[in-house]
UniProtKB/TrEMBL annotation:
Ranges for domain ABC transporter: 5-244
Organism in which the protein naturally occurs: Jiangella alkaliphila
Swiss-Prot/TrEMBL GO biological process terms: amino acid transport
Record keywords: Amino-acid transport, ATP-binding, Cell membrane, Membrane, Nucleotide-binding, Translocase, Transport
Family, as annotated: Belongs to the ABC transporter superfamily.
Protein name, entry field: D-methionine transport system ATP-binding protein
Function per UniProt: Part of the ABC transporter FtsEX involved in cellular division. Has ATPase activity.
Keyword Translocase: yes
Subunit annotation: Homodimer. Forms a membrane-associated complex with FtsX.
Length: 346
């Protein structure tokens, strides 16, 4: 099947001459129907411009952009309005109408689309119940918490039953607990309603918790993309490695390693916990097989796409030959950093 969204050497340039800014630079990228696709980058990377091209809030300067089989770069405004009807958008600052109630905000796109009043009221009630704020229908935005406002934003974005939901920094204004609630809701929307979700963020934790695939942007270009698990497990680009480091924190810093060596005189190694075709490496079994004692002194394991990911740092004690054989064995199955002992790296 053809991808639901297809960027084909797409560029977006603002301004001209010496003042021209290439916000999106030659991006080729596909988003498949039914997936949650993350786009991550630091401020100014071009990620928000990229997503605004999808619903033609910004126009493509060069290249082709296909949305649900239609080339949006070749459509007239009346045709673009029909494409936009199949795309919902959730914003960082909610963008609610303060003069309207919660029900009025959710029903607004249906009113614009010409839905009759009774059908509109039924759809609003259904959506408010779905996002968990049915009791707030008559409240105004100023009376809501940030998480409740974003639930209204999601309900409004879903009002016209779109195939695509664009979420531009949708959790950046929320506290950590509320962020997890909103991410859980977006997962439900994808799983239960079959809506394709494109998430724009500068937070790798959001990508780890939510997305199936991810594209990393830097200076308008996509520098790396692929399944989230693969990108975490083997980041190739400097920008990607920086993002991964901010979310995992599973390996000791040089300062922490110095403290570990002071307390643990044995040989210290860090073992990557990855799930390959044969499952995750069984460190305990490997220790037993080689007759080496191992003590976990640092580490962290999380889940990405429902698979374990992270690392463990261990102090090893036993005959040097046995430890060497263990390290060689583990290196055949995962990444291992041999950090040495007594302050001397191996």
């Amino acid at each position: 099947m053809a991808p639901l969204i297809s960027f084909q050497d797409v560029s977006k340039v603002f301004g001209s001459g010496d003042r021209a800014v290439r916000a999106v630079d030659g991006v080729t990228l596909d988003v498949e129907a039914g997936e949650i696709f993350g786009v991550i980058g630091y401020s100014g990377a071009g990620k928000s411009t990229l997503v605004r091209l999808v619903n033609a809030l910004e126009t493509v300067t060069s290249g082709r952009l296909l949305v649900d089989g239609q080339d949006v770069t070749a459509l007239r405004e009346a045709e673009l309005r029909r494409v936009r009807a199949g795309i919902g958008m959730v914003f960082q600052q909610f963008n609610l109408l303060n003069s309207r109630t919660v029900a009025g905000n959710v029903g607004y796109p249906l009113r614009v689309a010409g839905w009759p009043r009774e059908r509109r009221a039924a759809r609003v009630a259904e959506l408010l119940d779905y996002v968990g704020i049915a009791d707030k229908a008559k409240a105004y935005p100023r009376q809501l918490s940030g998480g409740q406002k974003q639930r209204v934003g999601i309900a409004r974005a879903l009002a016209t039953e779109p195939r695509i939901l664009l979420a531009d920094e949708a959790t950046s204004a929320l506290d950590p607990d509320t962020t997890q609630d909103v991410l859980a809701l977006l997962r439900r929307v994808n799983r239960e309603l079959g809506v394709t979700v494109v998430v724009i963020t500068h937070e790798m934790d959001v990508i780890r918790s939510l997305a199936h695939r991810v594209a990393v942007m830097e200076a308008g270009k996509v520098v790396e993309h692929g399944p989230v698990y693969d990108v975490f497990a083997a980041p190739r680009e400097r920008a990607t490695r920086r993002f991964v480091a901010t979310t995992l924190k599973d390996r000791p810093t040089p300062e922490a390693l110095a403290r570990l060596r002071h307390r643990h005189p044995g040989r210290i190694i860090t073992v990557g916990i990855r799930e390959g075709d044969g499952g995750s490496v069984d460190v305990t079994a490997a220790l037993r097989a080689h007759g080496v004692d191992g003590t976990i002194v640092f580490g962290g394991i999380t889940e990405i796409d429902e698979r374990p990911f992270g690392s463990l740092t261990l102090e090893l004690t036993g005959p040097d030959a046995a430890i060497d054989a263990l390290v060689a064995d583990l290196r055949g199955r995962t990444d291992v950093d041999d950090l040495g002992n007594a302050g001397v790296a191996a």
